[in-house]
Design a protein that fits this description.
Number of strands of chain B: 2
CATH architecture of chain A: Orthogonal Bundle
CATH topology of chain A: ABC transporter involved in vitamin B12 uptake, BtuC
Number of helices of chain A: 15
Shape of chain B: globular
Strand order of the largest sheet of chain A: 1-2
Largest sheet of chain A: 2 strands, antiparallel
Shape of chain A: globular
Number of strands of chain A: 2
Number of helices of chain B: 11
Distance between the termini of chain A: 24 Å
Oligomer: heterodimer
Strand content of chain B: under 5%
Order of helices and strands of chain A: HHHHHHEHHHHEHHHHH
Strand order of the largest sheet of chain B: 1-2
Structural class of chain A: mainly alpha
Largest sheet of chain B: 2 strands, antiparallel
Distance between the termini of chain B: 41 Å
Radius of gyration of chain A: 20 Å
Helix content of chain B: over 70%
C-alpha cells in the first residue's frame, strides 16, 4: 500500500496521544477521557451494524444497559466482584439478549428494523423500570469496582485507581478497534458489506444472509456489553436510564456524525459529541437546543460525517451517492472471488 | 373481574387504542407515501398538548382551543415539510433518523423555554365534566367517551378522504408506486406536503384531546412515539386499516396488561409485537417487508 491510510495512521496517533494523557491531564480530564473511550467502544460496536452491515439499530442501548445490570447483579453488596468472571458473564448476557432480539428484528428490514429495534430496547427499559428487580426505577449502586484478581493472587491493575482504569479503557478501545478491523477484512466482514449493498445478490450467491446478520448483531451486542460493563464499573451506579432510547439515539448520532463504516469515524463522533456536550453544557442549561441545531446542520452540511472531511481534505473525494468508507472490496465480484477462495 | 369493571376496561382500551390510531395513521402514511421515518412525531403530540394548555387558557374552552390550534398545526407541518423533510426524500433512512432526532431535541428545548418543565393539567370542558354512574361506586367519565367519539369521527373522515376523494386517490397511488404516480403528472411534492401536515395535525389533535386525561408533561412525546412505532410495525407500514386494527390491539393489551399483571404491564405491548414479528414479519396488513 504505502499510502497514507487514515484507517491506520489516525488510530495510531490517537492511541499514542491518549497514552500520554494521564501524564499531562488532571483527574477530571482523565475521567472524562475514560468515559469517552468507553463510549467509543459502544459507538464502534454499533458501527459494525450500521456502517458495515447496513442495519440501522435504534435500540443499541439495550445491550449496553443489560451488561451494566449484569455487573450490578453479580457484584456482592460490600465486596468487589472478580473482573475475570463478571466481565465475560456480562458480555455473554448482552450477547444472549442480542441473539434473542436479533432473531426477531432481523426478520424485518429498512425502516421496520429501526422501529422494531427501538421497541425491543424499550421493552427491556420497561422491564428494569417497572418489574422492581435490581433496584427498579431508582437503580442501584455498585460500591466497589471489579477486582482484576488472577488465580495466583496476582493483580495486574487496580480499577479503583483512576489512571489504571484509564489505561484499561484505552486498551479496551484499541483492542475492539483491532478486533473489528480484523472482522471487517475477513470474508465474514466482506459478506456483511455485500449484504448492505445488495442482499438479494448475496443470497443468490448462496450465502445464508440471515445467519451472517445475526452473527454481526450478536458480536455487536457483546461489544456494547463490554462498554456497558466498563461504564457501570466507572460510575458505580446503574439505573433504567442506561437503556433509555435517548442513549440509543445518542450513540447512533455518534456513528453517523463521525462517519459510518470506518470505525475511526465512530470514535471521532463519540469524542466530538461528548466534548460539544461538555462545552455547551457549561454555557447553558438549554444546551440540547444548539445540539439539535448542530445535528440538523450536520445532516445537510456533512453528508459523509466528520471523517468524510478528512477524506475530502486529502483530495480523495468519493462519489457522494455511494460513500464507501470501509476500505475493503465491496463490489459483488470481489465477494464472489473471496467466496470461491473459501 | 366483574362485568362492570370489565366494561370499564374495555372502554378504556378502545379510547386508548383510538388515540394511538390518530398518531399511528399519520406515521404510517408519512412513511408509506413519503418514505420518511419521522421520530419527531411524538413531539407533535406533545406540542398539541401544550398548545391545548395555552389556548384553553386564552380561549377559555378546550374546544375553542382545538379550533384555534389545529390550523396552527397544519401550518406548522407544511412549513416543516418544506424546510427540512422535503430535502430528505432521496437520502438514506439514517439521515431521516438523524434529522428528526435533531428536531426532537429542538422541540423539547423550545417547549422547556416556553412552558417550563412542570406538569400541568388542562380542565375538562364544563359540559362534559360529569360521569355516567354504572353501579353504586363505579362510574365512567363522559369526557373519555367523547375522546373515543372524536377519534371515531376522525377515522371515518379519513376513510372518506382516502377512499372517496380525488386527493385520497393520489395518496393511495403514492403508497402503491411513487414514481408511477409522478409520471402520471401528479404533483407528488404537493401530496407530500399535505400528507405531512395531515400527520402533524392528527398527532397534535391527539395531544390536545388527551391533555385533560393524561395531563401535560415534558416526556409525553417520547413515550407515545415508541408505542406508535409498535402500532405501525404490527399493523404494517402504509396501511391505515392495519394501523386501526393494531392500535386497538395495543389498546387492549396495554389496558388489560395493567389490570391483570401490573408488575410487567409495560412489557405487554412489546410481547404482542414480538409475536406478530415471529408470525407475520411484514405486519398484520403489510404488503411486504418494506
Amino acid at each position: 500500500m504505502g499510502r497514507l491510510s487514515p484507517a491506520l495512521l489516525l488510530p495510531l496517533l490517537a492511541v499514542a496521544a491518549l497514552a500520554a494523557g494521564p501524564l499531562v491531564a488532571g483527574t477530571f480530564y482523565v475521567q472524562l477521557l475514560t468515559k469517552i473511550m468507553i463510549l467509543v467502544v459502544f459507538a464502534m460496536s454499533l458501527d459494525l451494524l450500521v456502517g458495515c452491515a447496513g442495519l440501522v439499530s435504534l435500540g443499541h442501548a439495550a445491550y449496553f444497559g443489560v451488561a451494566a445490570y449484569a455487573l450490578a447483579a453479580l457484584s456482592p453488596q460490600y465486596e468487589a466482584a472478580n473482573l475475570w468472571l463478571t466481565l465475560p458473564a456480562a458480555m455473554a448476557v448482552s450477547a444472549l439478549a442480542a441473539l434473542v432480539i436479533g432473531f426477531l428484528v432481523l426478520r424485518t428490514s429498512g425502516v421496520y428494523f429501526i422501529m422494531a429495534t427501538l421497541a425491543f430496547a424499550q421493552m427491556l427499559y420497561a422491564f428494569f423500570a417497572e418489574s422492581g428487580v435490581i433496584g427498579g426505577s431508582d437503580g442501584v449502586y455498585i460500591y466497589s469496582k471489579p477486582e482484576a484478581l488472577l488465580p495466583g493472587g496476582l493483580k495486574p491493575f487496580d480499577l479503583e485507581r483512576t489512571t489504571d482504569f484509564y489505561y484499561v479503557a484505552l486498551a479496551a478501545m484499541a483492542g475492539v478497534y483491532v478486533l473489528l478491523r480484523t472482522i471487517l477484512h475477513s470474508l465474514f466482514g466482506r459478506v456483511l458489506v455485500g449484504i448492505r449493498d445488495n442482499e438479494q445478490r448475496m443470497r443468490s450467491l448462496g450465502f445464508q444472509t440471515f445467519r451472517y446478520k445475526l452473527a454481526a448483531f450478536v458480536i455487536s451486542g457483546a461489544l456494547a456489553g463490554l462498554a456497558g460493563y466498563l461504564s457501570a464499573a466507572q460510575f458505580g451506579f446503574v439505573n433504567p436510564e442506561l437503556l433509555n432510547w435517548h442513549r440509543s439515539g445518542e450513540v447512533l448520532m455518534m456513528v453517523i456524525l463521525g462517519g459510518m463504516g470506518s470505525l475511526y469515524g465512530a470514535a471521532l463522533g463519540a469524542f466530538v459529541l461528548v466534548l460539544v456536550e461538555d462545552v455547551l453544557g457549561g454555557l447553558t442549561t438549554h444546551w440540547l437546543l444548539p445540539m439539535g441545531i448542530f445535528i440538523i446542520a450536520a445532516v445537510f452540511l456533512l453528508p459523509e460525517g466528520i471523517a468524510g472531511l478528512w477524506r475530502s481534505g486529502l483530495g480523495r473525494r468519493r462519489r457522494p451517492a455511494a460513500p464507501d468508507p470501509v476500505e475493503v472490496a465491496t463490489d459483488a465480484a470481489a465477494v464472489e472471488e473471496a467466496a470461491a477462495d473459501a | 373481574m366483574d362485568f362492570v369493571t370489565f366494561l370499564i376496561q374495555v372502554l378504556n382500551s378502545v379510547q386508548y387504542g383510538l388515540l394511538l390510531f390518530l398518531l399511528a395513521s399519520g406515521l404510517t402514511l408519512i412513511f408509506g407515501i413519503m418514505g420518511v421515518i419521522n421520530l419527531a412525531h411524538g413531539s407533535f403530540y406533545m406540542l398539541g398538548a401544550y398548545l391545548a394548555l395555552s389556548l384553553t387558557q386564552y380561549a377559555g374552552n378546550l374546544f375553542l382551543g382545538i379550533a384555534l390550534g389545529l390550523p396552527l398545526a397544519v401550518l406548522f407541518g407544511l412549513v416543516l415539510e418544506k424546510l427540512f423533510i422535503a430535502r430528505l426524500y432521496h437520502r438514506d433512512h439514517l439521515y431521516q433518523v438523524l434529522l428528526t432526532y435533531g428536531l426532537i431535541l429542538v422541540f423539547d428545548e423550545l417547549r422547556s423555554l416556553i412552558w417550563g418543565n412542570d406538569v400541568h393539567g388542562v380542565p375538562v370542558p364544563k359540559a362534559l365534566d360529569w360521569s355516567i354512574p354504572l353501579t353504586d361506586t363505579l362510574s365512567y367519565p363522559v369526557y373519555r367517551l367523547m375522546i373515543s367519539a372524536i377519534c371515531l369521527a376522525v377515522a371515518g373522515a379519513m376513510y372518506v378522504l382516502i377512499q372517496k376523494t380525488r386527493f385520497g386517490m393520489m395518496i393511495r397511488a403514492g403508497v402503491a408506486n411513487r414514481e408511477m404516480t409522478q409520471s402520471l403528472g401528479i404533483d407528488i411534492g404537493l401530496v407530500h406536503g399535505f400528507v405531512f401536515a395531515l400527520g402533524v395535525a392528527l398527532a397534535a389533535l391527539a395531544g390536545m384531546i388527551a391533555a385533560p386525561v393524561s395531563s401535560v408533561f415534558p416526556g409525553m412525546g417520547g413515550q407515545i412515539l415508541i408505542i406508535s412505532f409498535v402500532v405501525v410495525v404490527i399493523g404494517g407500514i402504509g396501511s391505515i386499516k392495519g394501523a386501526l386494527a393494531a392500535a386497538l390491539l395495543i389498546g387492549f393489551a396495554d389496558t388489560f396488561g395493567k389490570v391483570l399483571a401490573p408488575q410487567v404491564s409495560g412489557m405487554a405491548v412489546y410481547l404482542v409485537m414480538a409475536l406478530v414479528l415471529l408470525l407475520r414479519p411484514a405486519g398484520l396488513f403489510g404488503r411486504t417487508a418494506a
